[in-house]
Amino acid sequence: MNDALLTASKPELLDKEGDRTLRGLLYDYFAFGRSLEACREIFAGFVDLSPTQYLILIAIKNSTAEEPMGVNQVAERLYLSGAFVTNEINKLVSDGLLEKSPHPEDGRRVQLALAQRGMSLLIRLAALQRPVNDALFSMLTREEFKVLSQLLSRLASNADNALKLAEHARATLKLQEDQNASRAKAPKLRQKRPAARHGPL
């Protein structure tokens, strides 16, 4: 394969057929991701929540007394901005699904917990989630599931760096292309011929 067409350069991502295996992995990942997104929307709609609100409730459900969740912890766990998560949490508190309480060690922070209404909603939702999640991951052994969980955690933690690189590289390449296009369009200046020299009269 022409190296100029490769979509990766790390040897670990390439084989004798170039980047064909990488592309196949991404096609499969996108297909599975679309299914996950669709399932998330079905779950959220079942209990009249937005997909993000659904994720927030699930994340807080999985917090512990030893590691209670505040706004920042929820945002970090879901890889979302703090401002966006704050707005969604305030809606959930207003709807009586979440409760806020002062952090016992830091008065500037709050702890989040499910209200009784939020707990009842998630119990109702779990009856739908169980068979769907079982089907999504039914082909995995326990060991394969653990490996997948670890790999996805590592990939997700690095995704922001890759996104920032993509934005920077796009801007740099676009600037280079614009500069090259400008040079190609610039009129070429004619060189002045030196004035003829006349000998002494």
- How are helices and strands ordered from N to C? HHHHEEHH
Q: If helices are DSSP runs of H or I spanning 4 or more residues, what is the number of helices?
A: 6
Strand content: under 5%
Residue ranges: pLDDT <50 for 5 or more in a row?
Answer: none
CATH architecture of the largest domain, by name, is Orthogonal Bundle
Biased composition (Basic residues): 185-201
Pfam family, one: MarR_2
Protein name: MarR family transcriptional regulator
Region (Disordered): 174-201
Notes on the protein architecture:
Residues 174-201 are annotated as: Disordered. Residues 185-201 have a biased composition (Basic residues). It holds the Pfam family MarR_2. The chain has 201 residues and is mainly α. The protein has two domains: 9-139, Winged helix-like DNA-binding domain superfamily/Winged helix DNA-binding domain (Arc Repressor Mutant, subunit A, Orthogonal Bundle); 140-184. The protein contains six helices and two strands. A two-stranded antiparallel sheet has the order 1-2. A hairpin with a 7-residue loop joins β1 (98-102) and β2. α1 (20-46) packs antiparallel against α5. The radius of gyration is 28 Å and the shape is extended.
What labels would you give this structure?
single chain, 201 residues, mainly alpha, Arc Repressor Mutant, subunit A, 2 domains
Quick summary of this structure?
The chain is mainly α and 201 residues long. It is built from six helices and two strands.
Give the topology, please.
Blueprint: H1 20-46, H2 51-61, H3 71-78, H4 82-94, E1 98-102, E2 110-114, H5 116-136, H6 142-185
Antiparallel strand pairs: 1-2
Helix pairs in contact: 1-2, 1-5, 3-4
